[in-house]
Specification:
Elements (H helix, E strand, L loop, with lengths): L2 E2 L15 E12 L6 H9 L9 E10 L10 E4 L10 E2 L18 E8 L11 E4 L30 E5 L16 E7 L5 E5 L9 E5 L5 E5 L7 E11 L4 E8 L16 H9 L10 E4 L1 H6 L3 E17 L14 E16 L28 H11 L6
Parallel strand pairs: 2-17, 6-14
Antiparallel strand pairs: 1-16, 2-3, 3-8, 4-5, 4-9, 6-7, 9-10, 11-12, 12-15, 13-14, 13-16, 16-17
């Protein structure tokens, strides 16, 4: 048996932590973030052409338990509905201590990071904030760079669980293919978790079509379609003016009216958090579908800007046994499940004039990715920001 519950309802008495906590993160990606439509389609996406963009759907799974595995080694699997087209089961792999990849060597960039924020033709007062990398110790992140107002909430992980499992792990299953739907019954079973069952009624969010147009005076207007189910939007852009190495000015802009960069803003955010951030003017409301990047940003990064837009979505919560209707009644759930949704896109602003590519043919097979063989213009800064940006900034 499963039951949905509202995340905002709190018990007035002590609640026993669940034996198992499960998180299912569901994404819809377009543009550079979802380049599966062939080389021609990829070029169109990169240059802001929306007609050829193809949606890609991905799912991430995280299971944390207070129990040790019994018997034997940890084993747990997620059984999606057949209509998800992800395979019969998705193995939730428990990381083996000491098998993680060694950290990449850090190369300190030489130059400055210029921070801008807010939608508008001109940058607001006090901008840019300049971080001089010459003053940053090797391997140390510049202070106050990522948002602390919006912390990252990944849910279960190795450090907060006695036993932990995750997917995609490369051990089986596949990301959703064309015609996939995740609506229906999902089941999780293993030797360190009670059986988890929940019936999901929410499907993938629609994709985002982002466009950019230069404005008189040097500003750049970005616009997008209204995404059904979106609770709010957040945009950022990143660029550089370098000498071809890792020296120069790196530019980072965000749509927030406050100096809020990255952190949980790149993650899945619950609707109540998004509502708070809209009130604080950190996140744009769901009724907004346009924003202007100040002229100073493009002037500081004249080559091109890599721009991204997030549409935060709904959240579904399940638990067993059900939360008592009376908040004074103690609650001892065996398991809880949180399913989070978002849609995002990424595209290039500027660069060579490729003409109108919005009607390009995207029927070609996706080309294999080439490995990066040299350090690019972002140098050590790419190492600091690449993982958070979700792109390879080192090439």
């Amino acid at each position: 048996m499963w039951i949905a519950f509202g995340p905002g309802v709190a018990q007035k008495t002590t609640t026993t932590p669940p034996i198992a906590r499960y998180v299912m993160n569901v994404s819809t990606t377009t543009g550079m973030a979802g380049m599966s439509g062939g080389a021609t389609s990829a070029i169109s996406m990169m240059m802001g052409g929306g007609g050829a963009s193809r949606e890609t759907h991905t799912v991430e799974l995280r299971l944390g338990s207070r129990n040790a595995a019994t018997p034997g080694a940890p084993k747990a699997d997620h059984f999606p509905p057949e209509t998800a087209k992800m395979g019969k089961m998705l193995p939730l792999v428990t990381p083996t201590p000491g098998t993680s990849e060694p950290p990449q060597s850090f190369e300190r960039p030489k130059g400055r990071l210029l921070l801008y924020w807010g939608c508008g033709a001109k940058a607001g007062p006090g901008q840019p904030v300049v971080i001089d990398f010459a003053k940053v110790a090797a391997g140390q992140m510049p202070p106050n760079l990522f948002s602390t107002r919006v912390p990252v909430d990944q849910g279960p992980n190795v450090s907060n669980s006695k036993t932990f499992g995750w997917w995609p792990s490369g051990k089986g299953g596949q990301q959703p293919g064309r015609g996939s739907t995740i609506v229906g019954e999902h089941r999780v079973a293993g030797n360190y978790t009670p059986e988890i069952k929940f019936n999901l009624a929410q499907d993938y969010m629609p994709g985002i079509t982002g466009r950019a147009s230069e404005q008189p005076g040097g500003a750049t207007n970005i616009s997008w379609n209204a995404v059904t189910g979106a609770t709010g939007y957040y945009a950022w852009a990143f660029g550089a003016k370098t000498d071809g190495g890792n020296t120069g000015d790196f530019v980072w802009w965000t749509s927030s009216t406050m100096r809020e960069f990255g952190g949980g803003l790149w993650d899945w955010l619950p609707p109540e958090t998004v509502r708070r951030l809209i009130g604080e003017k950190v996140v744009m409301p769901p009724t907004q579908t346009t924003c202007t990047i100040p002229a100073e940003v493009k002037a500081a990064a004249p080559g091109f800007l890599m721009s991204s837009l997030y549409a935060y979505g709904p959240e579904a919560n399940f638990a067993y046994p059900p939360r008592p209707a009376n908040p004074a009644t103690p609650w001892k759930p065996e398991w809880t499940t949180r399913v989070r949704f978002r849609s995002n896109t990424m595209w290039m602003i500027g660069g060579p004039d490729m003409g109108d590519m919005s009607a390009a043919d995207d029927t070609q097979e996706a080309q294999p990715k080439k490995k990066c063989k040299k350090k690019g213009g972002l140098g050590g800064l790419g190492g600091m920001l690449g993982g958070a940006l979700g792109v390879d900034t080192g090439c």
